[in-house]
């Protein structure tokens, strides 16, 4: 397995300004310099990076500004993260137009995968049929990804339609998209990350590793929270997953490169 890191820690997540006026232009983005993130990720001995779809949009008119940094740093763009708000029929066309553009950008910059996160959650809570709509949307999004030569997987997320093991089970029953476990989100949503990875081993398509401090529900570098990450890694190996592991940390009270180094040391000590 190869080890990558997400650029999200360099600034945290924001939305692109165009999304104020058009759903089709509402992309995730990192509020930081992606090129700085790539260089510092490389300096911490990672060989891959995951970015948001909006991070690529920022370089769409001059791709070499980012591609040259990836090449010089010896870092591969592994995956691109996008949203999965597929429950609103009235804006479905714009949502899939955004997915099409995200997939096109991901392929243009050499990524292998799209990761779709979350799923919109209505202010009044989930309605009957929302999980099914999300599943249908994810299958369509995976088809769009495949048309650009990309794999696609789904990432459960706190604060969205799918944050509990029961919601995840309902979703997995009604769609065929691959599974991207995020160890901290799964645990914070009441699940056992190692057990869920084992349960959906046949659909394991991508992995996000992060630690969790349960008492405060705060995400941590690997080894600095409460999760049994050794059991998680054992479950991944038992599933015969032999591909990228992406370490992710949404925010850090300090130098993001320091957090990246802590997690890399944790994995290196376990032979990764």
Question: Would you write up a description of this structure?
Answer:
The protein has helices at 34-43, 53-57, 64-73, 92-108, 130-147, 165-174, 183-188, 193-199, 229-238, 256-268, and strands at residues 3-6, 13-15, 28-30, 48-52, 76-83, 113-117, 151-155, 178-179, 208-209, 211-213, 218-220, 245-247. An eight-stranded parallel β-sheet has the order 8-7-6-5-4-1-12-9. A two-stranded antiparallel ribbon has the order 2-3. A two-stranded antiparallel ribbon has the order 10-11. The termini are close together. Helix 1 runs parallel beside helix 3, helix 5 (130-147) crosses helix 6 and helix 8 (193-199) runs parallel beside helix 9. It is of the alpha/beta class and 272 residues long. It contains ten helices and twelve strands. The longest helix is centred in the middle third of the chain and has 18 residues, at 130-147. Helices cover 39% and strands 17% of the residues. 47% of the residues are buried.
Briefly say what this structure is:
39% of the residues lie in helices and 17% in strands. By secondary structure, the protein is α/β, with parallel strands linked by helices.
Sum up the overall morphology in one term: globular
Q: What is the terminal separation in angstroms?
A: 7 Å
Helix content: 25-40%
Count of discrete alpha- or pi-helical segments spanning 4 or more residues: 10
Rg for CA atoms: 17 Å
Mean pLDDT: 95
Unreliable runs, pLDDT <50, ≥5 residues? Answer: none
Task: Report the strand count.
Answer: 12
* Percentage of residues in strands: 15-25%
Query: Main sheet?
Result: 8 strands, parallel
- Spatial strand order of the main sheet: 8-7-6-5-4-1-12-9
Order of helices and strands: EEEHEHHEHEHEHEHHEEEHEH
**Class by helix and strand content?**
alpha/beta
């Amino acid at each position: 397995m190869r080890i990558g890191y997400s650029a999200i820690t360099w600034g945290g997540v924001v939305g692109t300004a165009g999304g104020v006026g058009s759903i089709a232009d509402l992309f995730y983005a990192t509020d930081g310099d992606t090129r700085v993130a790539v260089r510092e990720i490389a300096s911490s001995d990672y060989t891959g990076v995951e970015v948001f779809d909006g991070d690529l949009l920022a370089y769409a008119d001059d791709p070499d500004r980012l591609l040259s940094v990836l090449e010089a740093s010896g870092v591969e763009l592994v995956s691109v993260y996008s949203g999965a708000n597929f429950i609103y029929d009235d804006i479905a066309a714009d949502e899939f137009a955004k997915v099409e553009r995200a997939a096109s950008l991901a392929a243009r910059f050499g990524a292998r995968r799209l990761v779709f996160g979350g799923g919109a959650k209505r202010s009044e809570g989930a309605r009957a049929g929302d999980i099914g709509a999300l599943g249908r949307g994810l299958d369509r999004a995976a088809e769009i990804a495949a048309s650009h030569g990309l794999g696609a997987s789904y990432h459960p997320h706190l604060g969205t339609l799918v944050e509990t093991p029961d919601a995840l089970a309902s979703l997995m029953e009604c769609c065929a998209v691959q599974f991207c476990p995020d160890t901290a989100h799964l645990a914070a949503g009441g699940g056992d990350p190692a057990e869920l990875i084992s349960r959906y081993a046949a659909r394991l398509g991508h992995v996000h590793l992060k630690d969790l401090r349960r008492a405060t529900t705060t995400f941590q570098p690997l080894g600095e929270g409460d999760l049994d990450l050794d059991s998680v890694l054992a479950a991944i190996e038992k599933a015969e997953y032999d591909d990228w592991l992406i370490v992710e940390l949404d925010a850090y009270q300090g130098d993001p490169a320091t957090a990246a180094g802590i997690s890399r040391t944790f994995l290196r000590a376990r032979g990764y």
